[in-house]
Structure formats: C-alpha cells, structure tokens
Amino acid sequence: MYSVEDASTIAALAAVPEPSSLALLGLGGVALILRRRM
C-alpha cells in the first residue's frame, strides 16, 4: 500500500510544524515586539 514516496512525504510533513502552531508562534513573536515598544 505504501511506497517509498509516501514515506518520504510523511517524513517531510513531520519535520515541518503545523501551520496553526507556526501562526501561533508568529503571533506570539509580534505581540512580544509590540509589547517592548510600548
């Protein structure tokens, strides 16, 4: 059922964090920067 291609795709997806968690990290970084300026 699974080919080598599927396994490498799954490995690549696992190495990259989820878009939602990445967005949360980005928002946290922006919030910290804005907080320091005020």
TrEMBL record:
<protein>
    <submittedName>
        <fullName>PEP-CTERM sorting domain-containing protein</fullName>
    </submittedName>
</protein>
<dbReference type="InterPro" id="IPR013424">
    <property type="entry name" value="Ice-binding_C"/>
</dbReference>
<keyword id="KW-1133">Transmembrane helix</keyword>
<feature type="domain" description="Ice-binding protein C-terminal">
    <location>
        <begin position="15"/>
        <end position="37"/>
    </location>
</feature>
<keyword id="KW-0472">Membrane</keyword>
<keyword id="KW-0812">Transmembrane</keyword>
<dbReference type="Pfam" id="PF07589">
    <property type="entry name" value="PEP-CTERM"/>
</dbReference>
<feature type="transmembrane region" description="Helical">
    <location>
        <begin position="12"/>
        <end position="34"/>
    </location>
</feature>
